[in-house]
From TrEMBL:
It is a multi-pass membrane protein. Its main location: membrane. Coiled coil: none annotated. The chain crosses the membrane at residues 42-60, 67-83, 95-115, 135-152, 158-176. This is Co/Zn/Cd efflux system component. Residues 5-179 form the Cation efflux protein transmembrane domain. The keyword rRNA processing does not apply.
């Protein structure tokens, strides 16, 4: 498990750097949202590594922090999408497409490595959900790039950003609920 998490951490950290620069260059909110998600995932993997083998109380605390991070990132992206509604800047579709494809390949590799841990405790579930959401988000970025290219407007980019934010919020709620279930199942160990 530790090796898989280190792999995921390194891939996500590298892709954060690539996407934040590409998102800024291409003026793409969906790339920016995906870059922020890569950063959140990098931090999530680091926290999971830190509590691997720790007691239930520590693992639940970290899972709750990760749920709050995923939810916070989702809210930040939604706010940015609403703020950009009035802006007429059209993102660079070819850059969006190329970087979205690279990110998809990176996330499919991470998801493949982490697939076996998808039914684990709240921390392991959050790791899997991050990877799954990332691959879905990358497909959405590719769709946004095609939409921006086809329409010549920023609407597809903004729509995909809002959908990605919704995925982050949904994952945050799922992880938070899982922590509550785990705490309820073992109350004597969680205090």
């Amino acid at each position: 498990m530790r090796r898989a998490l280190w792999f995921a951490l390194l891939v996500n950290g590298a892709m954060f750097g690539v996407e934040i620069l590409a998102g800024l260059q291409a003026a793409s909110l969906s790339l920016w949202a995906d870059a922020i998600d890569f950063l959140g995932d990098t931090l999530s993997y680091a926290m999971t590594l830190a509590v691997l083998g720790a007691g239930l109380a520590a693992r639940l605390r970290v899972a709750r922090i990760k749920a709050l991070m995923m939810g916070g990132l989702g809210v930040a992206v939604l706010a940015q999408a609403l703020w950009r509604l009035g802006a007429g800047a059209v993102p660079d579709a070819p850059v969006m497409g190329a970087v979205g494809l690279a990110a998809l390949l990176a996330n499919l590799g991470v998801a493949w490595v982490l697939y076996r841990y998808r039914e684990g405790d709240a921390n392991l579930q959050s790791v899997w959900l991050c990877s799954r959401n990332d691959a879905i988000g990358n497909l959405a970025v590719l769709a946004a790039a095609a939409g921006v290219f086809g329409t010549g407007t920023a609407w597809p980019d903004l729509l995909v950003s809002a959908l990605m934010a919704g995925l982050g919020l949904q994952a945050a709620v799922a992880v938070w609920r899982r922590t509550a279930q785990e705490q309820a199942q073992e109350p004597s160990h969680a205090h």
